[in-house]
Amino acid sequence: MLDYDKEADAYDATRGGEPRAAAAADAVLGLVPAGARRLLDVACGTGIVTRRLAAARRALRVTGADLTFGMARMAAVRLPDAIVLADSRRLPFPDRAFDAVTSVWLLHLLDTGDDVRAVIAECARVLRPGGMYVTTVDKAAAHDVGSDIDAVLAPRPRRPAQDAAEAVTLYAAVHGLAPAGQACFPGRGQGRSPRSTIADLRRGWFTRLPPGDPLTERFAARLETLPDQDRSRADPVFTVLAFRKADRSP
Hints:
Layout: H1 4-11, H2 17-29, E1 38-42, H3 50-56, E2 61-66, H4 69-78, E3 83-85, E4 98-103, H5 113-125, E5 127-137, H6 139-142, H7 148-153, H8 165-174, E6 177-186, H9 194-203, H10 214-223, E7 237-245
Parallel strand pairs: 1-2, 1-4, 2-3, 4-5
Antiparallel strand pairs: 5-7, 6-7
Helix pairs in contact: 1-4, 2-3, 5-8, 9-10
């Protein structure tokens, strides 16, 4: 797991910046009902998407929550008086407080299925009946675009995908959240080049390949043999699912 306090200052620049944030916000808002008045963005990070959610709909009161101080500090600059420090597994809000809850690029970071279930349970708890929960799923799979880089990395050890769409849908159902829509958006500026992938390997971005490990270096050496070391391959395409809370939760 990356240290997101340390990553905060460089996070946006290394994750596609404003173009990716714009694409994400558009996809999320396309699934949030027009009549929503209060929205909670869980794990809001630097607020780069959260700010766009608030700016797009002036009648929508947006609150952001994040676990790490470094991220929340940056988000608070973008959305003053609207950001709180909070663990997504124990949200500091009353039941049924929001018309919509979003979690963009959160579930894939969690260590276990229990953590994912706890987050979804909390999102459902603070969501009013009839409200909408919107979340990204299958993030790691989206980065496999069928490139020569992906072919080299295919045999690497992988951690279980905690944000698999099928599992998220099952967890959501337990809390009265029924599928209500889907959208996709491009991860603009996130297409990998061989050289950038080698740098990511050596930074520890591939969680089962520690920096300095002999296996990590073997993958790096194979990537160094690929042509066009600085040419980015195709951008990933991310998936967003929406779930509507039943008028009467179980």
